[in-house]
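Hi Prof. W.,

I finally got the Mevalonate kinase prediction working! I wasn't sure whether to trim anything, so I left the full sequence exactly as given:
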Amino acid sequence: MEVKARAPGKIILAGEHAVVHGSTAVAAAIDLYTYVTLRLPLHSDENNDRLTLQLKDLSLEFTWSVSRLKEGIAYDSSNVSRSTPSSCSSQTLKSIAVLVEEQNIPEAKIQLSSGISTFLWLYTSILGFIPATVIITTELPYGSGLGSSAAFCVALTAALIASSTSDKTHGEGWFSLDETNLELLNKWAFEGEKIIHGKPSGIDNTVSAYGNMIKFCSGEITRLKSNMPLRMLITNTKVGRNTKALVSGVSERKVRHPEAMNYVFNAVDSISKEVAAIIQTKDDISVTEKEESVKELMEMNQGLLESMGVSHSSIDTVIQTTLKHKLTSKLTGAGGGGCVLTLLPTLVSGTVVEKVVEELESSGFQCFTASIGGKGAEICF
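And this is what came out:
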């Protein structure tokens, strides 16, 4: 049997960093996906006692015998229920780490260890010790702030849950899981994100699971419905960054200048709320007017992020390049490099976009165009 699943990446439209200090943030799904194919062998197949993980984009493959997994993973399977997501204990994580280390991951790819540990945890927790081949491909650049790890967790969990459902009569094409299974999927994906990131906010996996947009404030996530089309040019500066250090830097600046930084955070909160209101409004306002408002708010948000000290020369280069063509950009995510969003208004010509992309790529950057606020996790049999 073969099950396919896909889950989108995400962008932060407004609210980066300030959200840590109680302000509102708005995040949205993008139509760049991570794909998972799960193949469960027939009993007559040879070598059907192994679990294989293929990372196609990296040309890497890892294989474990089912007996080795049963021997190596230290938890009582009778205490694990697919319908009740639970956290991976430190003892279990240590035993999984041993199984990962046995794979001799190339030194250059050692950062994959937490992702492979997450794979083993989610797989054995949801499906148990069943042989299979799992193939993963992605359109999302790793570690760029576009939610690649969450898309991985969500797509994998979707495939695992779908493989154990009895209803496989949906016919051809992609379709969403029902609301109950989506909620279950999101909870499991969050547990996977905890293995990779330690203390994730839950924003990335929720956007990837449900799609469209969400508003996040003080731990509360509200799903939004967009009533306007939005298209962005996403530029990956390819500059690595230390998210933890950037977050700490903003907090330290707040300690030094508490009153000023509180004004900054309050301003960001207002911007995020206004963005959310604009994209949800059904008022008889033209798309062009809405886009102009979003453009101004993006510009203001970028200025506030610069005042927090989280911009970077590579981000400045993208902003100045797009500004020459009367396009507005802002960083998305932690900053310090990573990705930059550029609003592509409905009326912008394809020629202008091509010219901007050419200039950015000549600077060594990587560009994608993406629609904002699309579908969440989907499966296909």
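The radius of gyration is 21 Å. Does that look reasonable to you?

Thanks,
D.
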